[in-house]
Write a structure and sequence with these properties.
This protein is mostly helical and 59 residues long. It is 81% helix and 0% strand.
């Protein structure tokens, strides 16, 4: 049994399984993309955002 037929039988054969796979992949991609973009933003704006300077203003 080749890899292609294994993937076909486990994911693409039934449309409900395919749809569930798409939803899961979209969720994982969204979380990864969001965390990556937040990390890049925080790295560029280090020392300028509220979470970095809030200790200067707390009493």
């Amino acid at each position: 049994m080749s890899l292609g037929s294994t993937i076909y039988n486990s994911i693409f054969k039934r449309s409900s399984t395919f749809a569930l796979t798409l939803v899961g992949a979209a969720f994982i991609f969204e979380r990864g993309f969001d965390l990556t973009c937040d990390g890049i933003f925080d790295n560029i704006n280090k020392g300028k955002s509220w979470k970095d300077i809030k200790n200067n203003y707390s009493q």
